[in-house]
Amino acid sequence: MSDRARLLSEVSRRLGIRRLVWMGLRGDDIEPLADLPQLHGAFSIIGGYDRRVSVKSLAYEDLTGVRVDPEIWDIDDHLKDDATIEFRRALLGALSSDCALLPYRPLNFLSAIHFARLARCRHLGLFGAHQYAFEHKPWVESAVRDLGLPQIPWTYVADEDQLQVRELSRHGELVLRRSRTSGGEGFTRVTSIDDVASHWPYVDESFVSVAPYLEGALPLNVGATVWTDGVTVHNPSVQLIGIDSCVTRDFGYCGNDFGLIRDLDRDVIQQIEDSTVRIGRWLREHGYLGSFGVDYLLHCGRLLFTEINPRFQGSTHSSCRLDVEAGRSCLLLEHLAAWLEVPCPRPVPLAARIAEASALTNLVVHWTGDSGAHLDGRSLVDHVRRVESTVRADVITSATVSTDRGATVARLAIRRSVTKSGFELDEKLDQAIRGWQFGARKEPAGR
């Protein structure tokens, strides 16, 4: 019996008669748990899950007719909207008998629903207000600094002290960042001191994080799981960031290349593993349990901590796919197991995971048009298939909804490495996506 089969059996046994309900950004993210007998519901903001007819599915976009950009849209900000009320009622209905709720990311919206179903629902995630603390980047960075891990040299500058930035700018370009960000939203790159005032992100905290822009750094990501008695680390990848054909933001998230990671030196892989385990232990000491992610930059041969993602990530789905193919337990399954108090299994060395995994790229294409539009995401997939005949796609937008600027058009799975730096794609693939983006802008507005 494989490692995955054993853990799946134990998770199923501990769930017992409880029906598992997923609530996340994308319905298709639950696919790695499709073989869990208790999987009952998949509720999502975009991309309804339709791979198993036995799984009850509802996507928020089907209630509104709009596919939103989740980096700037949060259901917690729309609790009184008619669509949210309808979505909440459907979720309450799915949780009307013995069940377990699995969140992509804890939310106040979900915490309220859980307490309204407390007698029959087990919440397999942190209380939303607890998780919120781990999203405050300066607090986390200060703790990681105390662990002795190298990191980006952020300076925290009060709104009243912007003149301090003039001294920092003498060393080159800068990055300005809010304390809470997601998917590259909340970061601004400035090339000169003259740009600082106009790009300064005024927020309620009245301070901004400032750091030098590290030219030529390789962006890395890894997923892991915190157990009550250990930490397991999963497939690392090179992050795809700020690619013009795929995203509207300078540092916008575009996916993950799990193949290019094989080119890293073995000692870098070991540093990723060791650092992530130490961060996981710190998280556990502060009440965190379950899966999380860490971003790093590899700059001039030095691994620098960037941020913790205290939730599942955009890379989780593809990381799980690689683990399932290898017969290994994955981040979704391990998150469930950790919350069901299963003992931590023996960790698989990161180098061994990389050696046994096949090349895979998870590429997320966002709509880069000037405004929302009715798009047929399948036409994007057709364009890409002209240069990548074996590409697979999910989370595909439909012409029945209006896709907001910056929202996901489709998530593409490509069985090879597609980048050299994380900030570009190979030419043919990039041209295919650019060609589709340009053509979609020319479509009649009523489509």
* Mean pLDDT, all residues: 93
Name the poorly predicted regions.
none
Radius of gyration: 21 Å
Total tally of structural domains: 3
Query: The CATH topology of the largest domain is what?
Result: D-amino Acid Aminotransferase, Chain A, domain 1
Q: How far apart are the termini?
A: 51 Å
Number of DSSP-assigned strands? 21
CATH class category name of the largest domain = Alpha Beta
Helix content: 25-40%
The biggest sheet amounts to: 9 strands, antiparallel
Q: Quick one: overall form? A: globular
% residues in beta strands: 25-35%
Query: Treating each run of at least 4 consecutive H or I residues as one helix, how many helices?
Result: 14
CATH superfamily of the largest domain: ATP-grasp fold, B domain
Judged by helices, strands and strand pairing, the structural class is alpha+beta
CATH architecture of the largest domain: 2-Layer Sandwich
Using brief descriptors, characterize the structure shown.
D-amino Acid Aminotransferase, Chain A, domain 1, 3 domains, Dna Ligase, domain 1, 21 strands, 447 residues
Provide a descriptive summary of the structure in words.
- The chain starts with a helix and ends in a 6-residue tail after the last helix.
- Strands 11, 12, 13, 14, 15, 16, 17, 19 and 21 form a nine-stranded antiparallel β-sheet that branches.
- The protein folds into three domains: 3-133, no CATH class; 153-212, ATP-grasp fold, A domain (Dna Ligase, domain 1); 218-441, ATP-grasp fold, B domain (D-amino Acid Aminotransferase, Chain A, domain 1).
- Helix 1 crosses helix 11 and helix 13 runs antiparallel to helix 14 (427-441).
- The model has no long low-confidence stretch (mean pLDDT 93).
- With 447 residues, it is an alpha+beta fold.
- 30% of the residues lie in helices and 26% in strands.
- The protein contains 14 helices and 21 strands.
- The longest helix has 20 residues, at 266-285.
